[in-house]
Amino acid sequence: MENQLPAMPDVIAQVPLNNYVLLASILFIIGIAGVLIRRNAIIMLMSIELMLNAVNLLLVAFSSYRSDPNGQIFVFFIMAVAAAEVAVGLAIIVMIYRNIRSIDISLLDKLRG
Amino acid sequence: MYPIISLSVTGLLTLFLGFSENKKIVFPASIAFLLIALATAFIDWNAPGFYFNDMLQVNNTSIVFWAILIISAILIMGFSEGFERFEFAQPAEYFAIVQFSLVGAIMMVSFKNLIMLFLGIEILSVAMYVLTGADKRNIRGNEAALKYFLMGAFATGILLFGMAMFYGATGTFNIGSGVFIGGDNSFFLWIGCTFMLIGMLFKVAAAPFHLWTPDVYEGAPTIFTAYMSTIVKTAGFVALFKVLSTTFSGLQDFWWIMIAVLVTLSLMIGNIGAVSQNSFKRLMAYSSISHAGFMLLALLGDHENALGSIMFYSVVYTLATISAFGVLMVVSKERIEKGRVYEQNDLFKGLAQNNGFLATVLIIAMLSLAGIPLTGGFWGKFFVFRDAASSGLFWVIIMAVLMSAIAIYYYFKPVLLSMSKKTSLESITINPLAKFIFAITTFGTIVLGIFPWILRSLF
Amino acid sequence: MEDWMNQLDWAWLQWLALGIFGFGAVGGALYLFFTKNILYGAYGLLTSLISVGGLFLMNGAEFLAVSQIMVYVGGILILIMFGIMLSAKGEKKEDALKVVNVNSLVSLLFAAVMAGGLIFYSVKMGGSRSLAEPSAEQVQDLGMSLMTTQVLVLELVGVLLLIVLIGASYIAKK
């Protein structure tokens, strides 16, 4: 494995890339399963965050493997966008809650993905 | 590149206009701002180039698409005159978000780097999540916003995973050079290609990633349904084409069969699903799924013609869709039943007798969507069929023709209803601006039906 | 002492770190997937996010590891917690938010192992002198690249955040 990143002590650089890809894929799959199976809007939202995290891990691993900063910059932007998405999502959830509190409490459970 | 700057700045200006006493100024100012953006788009005409370290690619093709997107936005926004009457209206915020969302759409048609694609999709999508929920007191709108948000964010996650895998295989986010199969990385590349395709097909509502479409189209305020089914779709298809024709052109054998299957599924689900719909907006949602299938058909042919066909198809589809949703908005404005706007198909009953102009607009739009000759929709379908024929996939084309026949049935439902007789008609008022927009869209549909080469010869 | 440390093969250490963080990431995710209580799910997500931050550290992305903790754990997770509290449903509002301390022993143990691993790891990292200088350089690279080649993206992220600011306040307002 060729890892040129100077910041990496030799000890750390020895974990083969495959482990990270495997780990990221497992996280990603748990996230997908969470979105598809769970019916609670907030848990679905958290599962989506999990998916984005898996992507971040993958990008960081590839970035250090190739010693190329672009992957890390992408991760930086994904973090910003994820924060933005969560803000909008929670605004929507709060709006729904405000409306259904007096009308239909089970609306959140009725949603199908 | 200039429209991006222009729209970002004018979006901010629009927000400041919201502080002014007279809220009526926001609407004409926003239309003026969009026109300015349209004018700035042509500064780069015949001056192709790359901007900001290969982030953006500008050429005449992308300028044409910018113009299409901005003009569509102007036509749709025209229907929001008198919006301030509504309880939920916050005109400044709403027009500002529309202008910012166009920035995202423009990024999607002229990106050169996957970061720009991702961010463009995200800007457009986040704006749409907000606009879908703009009618805050309407529970259906709220539910639609939540569903759209969850499915959209999910699709973003999948798209990003694909991009990460692509980066792992190639070491770059630039889409300039084609990639080649072979070596240890081909597995990453396959996964990257598949996941990026899935993520983008979610956004353009192609089956089997269409599950959110009917509910979201039905729940969203009609004006944003129109926005969603025209601008998001056009930008999404151009982005899809760009990714497939540049970066993944070396993988064509791989994605080709996938697209062929998706075309079949989209056409079947869209057209068969639409037959049993009573709500006009749900009917249009299924119709939009089937049109996604037709537009995907263009990607099966060779890449020289595909972009022209996609451009033509999205223009005629946009014109017809704006007409259809515009008529729905005008007619349903007066009909409120059980606290919500009435949007079933039989809303159009007796329309021809009541208001001949609106009925004509609706009928021409429906004929164009169904692909009847002498309307633009016919040529749109003709071009994509011709493209697909060059690929030799005849079973898909036979399928598509069969499905177009089914489509005629459900597009004629509103047409026949509008011709039927009905007593006790309430009068419908159309404001002059809406009339003007209807004139443009209908005239455009017919002109493109008779002289398709006007647009097709652009590139 | 120094010689003895250098002679030892530390390869097992990174496997241990990978094991701990990987276990934390996947375990937290699985907990989020299976739990019936939204709030516990948020804790599962927290574990997962912090572990992924640790994995960033192992890949030499110190800046991102810190951002991960600050943005995700400090920002996004707090937002989600607010969302849970604002939209808690159940017979009474308190029911959904009631936190019962079960498995406290296990979680304490887990936390101790995590903390032990992190401390041990960071102590070991601190010992290697080659870390400090290039790391600063790397952050500098990141910053330079953000302000030069990626400046358009940075500006457009600003547009996105503006949309979110307007949109979220507009939607959530009464």
Query: How many domain regions of chain A?
Result: 1
User: Which class of secondary structure composition applies to the elements of chain C?
Assistant: mainly alpha
> Uncertain segments of chain A of ≥5 residues (pLDDT<50)?
1-12, 102-113
Strand tally of chain C: 0
User: Kindly, what is the distance between the CA atoms of the first and last residues of chain C, rounded to a whole number of angstroms?
Assistant: 67 Å
Q: Which sequence of SSEs, written as H and E, runs from N to C of chain C?
A: HHHHHHHH
Q: Main β-sheet of chain A, in a few words?
A: none
Radius of gyration of chain A: 19 Å
Please give the largest β-sheet of chain C: none
Low-confidence stretches of chain C: 91-102, 124-134
Q: Give the number of helices of chain C.
A: 8
Instruction: Report the C-alpha radius of gyration of chain C, rounded.
Output: 21 Å
Give the CA-based shape of chain A: elongated
Number of helices of chain A: 4
CATH class of the largest domain in chain C: Mainly Alpha
Q: How far do the termini of chain A sit from each other?
A: 42 Å
Instruction: Provide the CATH architecture of the largest domain in chain C.
Output: Up-down Bundle
CATH topology-level fold name of the largest domain in chain C? Four Helix Bundle (Hemerythrin (Met), subunit A)
CATH H-level homologous superfamily name of the largest domain in chain C: NADH-ubiquinone/plastoquinone oxidoreductase chain 6, subunit NuoJ
Look at the helices and sheets of chain A and give the structural class.
Answer: mainly alpha
Question: Assembly state here?
Answer: heterotrimer
Descriptive report:
- Chain B: It comes from Jiulongibacter sediminis.
- Chain B: Keywords: Cell membrane, Membrane, NAD, Quinone, Translocase, Transmembrane, Transmembrane helix, Transport.
- Chain B: It is found in: Cell membrane; Endomembrane system; Membrane.
- Chain B: It catalyses: a quinone + NADH + 5 H(+)(in) = a quinol + NAD(+) + 4 H(+)(out).
- Chain B: This is NADH-quinone oxidoreductase subunit N.
- The complex is a heterotrimer of chains A (113), B (459) and C (174).
- With 113 residues, chain A is mainly α.
- The N terminus and C terminus of chain A are likely disordered.
- In chain A, helix 1 packs antiparallel against helix 2 and helix 2 runs antiparallel to helix 3.
- Helix content of chain A is 73%, strand content 0%.
- Chain A is built from 4 helices and no strands.
- Chain A has one domain: Orthogonal Bundle (Helix Hairpins).
- In chain B, helix 6 packs antiparallel against helix 7.
- In chain B, the strands form 2 sheets. Chain B has a two-stranded antiparallel ribbon.
- In chain B, strand 1 and strand 2 form a beta hairpin.
- The two termini of chain B are 20 Å apart.
- By secondary structure, chain C is an all-alpha fold.
- Chain C has 2 domains: 126 residues, NADH-ubiquinone/plastoquinone oxidoreductase chain 6, subunit NuoJ (Four Helix Bundle (Hemerythrin (Met), subunit A)), CATH 1.20.120.1200; 44 residues.
- In chain C, 82% of the residues lie in helices and 0% in strands.
- Chain C contains 8 helices and no strands.
- The N and C termini of chain C lie far apart (67 Å).
- About 13% of the residues of chain C have low confidence.
- At the A-C interface, helix 1, helix 2 and helix 3 of A face helix 2, helix 3, helix 4, helix 7 and helix 8 of C.
